[in-house]
Amino acid sequence: MKKICVYCASSPTIKPIFFDATETLAKLFVEHDIELVFGGGARGLMGKLADTVIKHRGKIKGIMPQFMNEVEWAHKGVTDFEFTETMHQRKALFLEGIDGLVALPGGCGTLEELLEAITLKRLGQFTKPIVILNTDNYYQPLKDMLNKCVDEDFMQKSHLDMWRFVDEPEHVIDALKNSPSWNAGAIKFANQ
Length: 192
Fold this sequence. Notes:
Layout: E1 3-7, H1 16-31, E2 35-38, H2 44-55, E3 60-65, H3 66-70, E4 80-84, H4 87-94, E5 100-103, H5 108-122, E6 130-133, H6 140-151, E7 164-166, H7 172-177
Helix pairs in contact: 1-2
């Protein structure tokens, strides 16, 4: 594990428990010499992630559409930045050259990015581990919904191997390393 993409919230008004978990996870990534890729924001969990990595001399890269940069959403302390024209380009770059991705709590943007990555994995277009940090049971409704997709035969039971839910930031790196392997052949059973 050398490079991990992290999806997370930009809202600064969320509960402190989410900030604490993000700070803990960021420190663990730095301790394991793992470079992070994130949305580039200066506020919310994005800001906490970047602040912590920078403070502990880790590596972090921001990817953001230029229109967000124009309204000064970009984190000023992040020196490695790539600006895109569109959100679609941003999401594609998030998944390039990474060894896995982690979803922290977030709103519609985080959910949209996560579900797109899961869809791409189902189709064999993205094959890296996906770990969902379920801080304070935030993602329990999503976990229930994904299980319901399987229970109602919208997905197969084997699709449950596409992601791992963990409750504590201390379990994220192990979950990334120990996720079941996945390959491009997944397209062969994506619609069965």
